[in-house]
Design goal:
mainly alpha; 0% strand; 62 residues
Length: 62
């Protein structure tokens, strides 16, 4: 299995930063009723708990 990571140059790309900001905004809107706030994708999604809550909400489980 081959894994790819963002380079430092890529992480500074304005388009990527905008995409990340929009994704954080969308996640926060979806999880607002659960009082979950994401500020950093890498840190806040690391252990999978926030991602699990998001998937459950989108699937209508919660």
């Amino acid at each position: 299995e081959m894994r790819r990571y963002l380079t430092k140059e890529s992480s500074e790309d304005p388009k990527l930063r905008e995409l990340i900001s929009l994704l954080i905004y969308w996640i926060n809107e979806e999880l607002a009723d659960l009082r979950i706030v994401v500020r950093n994708l890498q840190e806040d999604l690391y252990d999978g708990q926030v991602l699990q809550m998001l998937m459950e909400k989108l699937a209508g489980i919660r």
